[in-house]
Amino acid sequence: MLKNPIPQVTNQLQYRAIGIVNGKFTPHDNEKLNRGFLTDNNGEKIETVVLGKALSILKKYINLKKSYYWVVYPKNKNTENLHLQVAGIWDPYQLNDFPNDSSETNFSKLLEELDLKDNYFSVRGELVFVNTKKKEVVIKIVSDSKLKNSKNKNFKLIIKGELSLELLNSFVSLDITREGNALKLIKYELIEKDLSEKKLK
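Request: output the structure for the sequence above.
Response:
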């Protein structure tokens, strides 16, 4: 069974921001591997932090001279400045118990089987701001309340694209692609209209 790097949603109103990026990770300091940058196939560099669980995989299995598919959480303060947090590494053969029938198998083809591709992000959250002039939207992501000590309580992602003002405060699911340091809207689905009315009830 091929493990999907971006799991299916378990709940209609599940917030998330997760994606997959192929590239090489270069730490700022060889003593501390958790901070550095990811260089994608176009030579674009993105500031990157490796989270705890992924860090132990990185130390054990990862050859820093090679490219890998990184499962990442995106953060940004504007559309010019993307920051990634590595949550895992998608390598079906080495790390995900997938039978290795042939080393020729193309990872991007495997991704296609899962309806995914390099630089794809799934973002689900509340639309809190629409900038019609700049053609940007802001999505608020609320972190899982089970993670009480999580530093990433709630955060906002700025995405290039246009959504109707009528969708403000609604819960939306977005398919996003990364272009350089920007996250760009491909398509969206309205999951629930106007959450603010629910909060008042």
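The helical segments are 52-61, 107-113, 195-200.
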